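Supplementary Note 3. Input sequence used for the single-chain structure prediction.
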Amino acid sequence: MKIPINKIAIISFVLFGVIACQKDDAIPEYNNFSDALATNGDKRIQRDDFASFADLSKGVTNRTWTIPESASIINLEGRDPSQVELVQVQFDELGQFEVNLKDEFIDSTVQLDTTFNVTVLDFIQTNFDVLSIESSFQEETPTQITIYEGGTITFQDVSQGSPNRRKWTFPGGDPSSAGGISIDYDKDFQNIAVSYPTIGTYDVSLVTWRQYPEGSKDTLHLKDYINVIENIDPPTLTQITESDAGVIHLNYNLPLKLTADLVPHLTLTVDGIKTDILSAAINLDDNRIVDITTTENIKSNSVASLSYDNSEGVLVRVNDVVAESFTDQPVELFVSLNLANSSIYGFEDGGAGWMAASDNVGEISFTDQKAASGNYSMRMEATENAKWTRSWSWKEGSEFTLKAGQKVTIEFKIWIDPSYTDGSIGPWITGTEAPYPGTQFWTGMSGLPRGEWITINKETAKVWTVTADGDYFVAFRFQKKGIIYIDDVKVYIPE
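The predicted structure, written as discrete structure tokens, is reproduced below.
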């Protein structure tokens, strides 16, 4: 029903919060209104507190407040609720509730029926559970958990009262603390895995609190809750990674030492070829890590593996327990950051970030029928010879920023249809502002496989030094008949 202008019926939710043991401020005086207005929404309070609801309507002949049976209006002072414009409703039970207001007016054509939703939360009471224990030895009592050094315990915040802030403290653990920064940050640490590399007895504490409605901090502190004892097992290799500086890290769960030169006992293979190792040493900052340097940089698009022969017991724990041999364990190579948005340049936005170039005469489309990864790729078809088929990401929101002096290159995946007749394809990185600085990364297509996804990486062929600060985009072009698909375009700074 359309409410006629100057037929006044206004409801406003003027105060809703935790205001324990004090009266609301007086309702302000309002001028005559010309429109009907009702405001409501989901509100949160703490148990045993009250929320205030105000009816500011004009010309009311009958007013009805409806509240939950478990709640009570605490400011009636002997008055009939229908005569009260502002009610203070106290909620003593937890859960989801509704407060309803119905008004009838002098003008019978005007009616208002509005509902306010209320969530009642409990007081904050901090508590946590142990979700899992990763240790070859464990013993639990109500007051203490005993594990081997190097073990990992995963904790879960199970506090009452829906806290949205938390701060963990784990002396002797890794990490030693977490949370306590912001709502968005702290929510990531409702569950947390903590490793204990060193023998000793350690406390655990958790502080939780809530913002809106305010919930006071509550602390659970368990003294000597974690007992870490000597591990008599061999150290466990957890992963092999490569840093951005090209150093290979052997990551173990326990402190290590070397009894002799480790290099002769290591075998590094890159793309099926044995690669020389320059040195191997215990990391100075973390003695659970062995740092391995090579004679040459390993490219991120390579496949690398490492083997260790423990026949002479060179790599041992600090208590002399020998590390076990391993063979052809994969190395997680460092991958440079994509300077372009991976979703847009991987076409996972359905191609919304790309378009046919102004001089394009071919067919540009985006398909979920063929993709190197994800769901979408870009299809380019040249229907005429000697005319450009060109697509680019020159669209607002698709550009990426480069700085003068940066060295960048490009990588992309391509599926070449057997119909493709051009001898090359021209990827470009180009600036969005005149004089349009940029460069092309011509790629020969002769001899490349047809009918399968392959990765084209131009790092070994061309690295471009950016000539001017600004926003840039990527374009692909060719000019002879045929079909290709493009996916997973990456612009990056070579290692």
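The CA atoms of residues 140 and 304 lie 41 Å apart. The mean pLDDT is 89.
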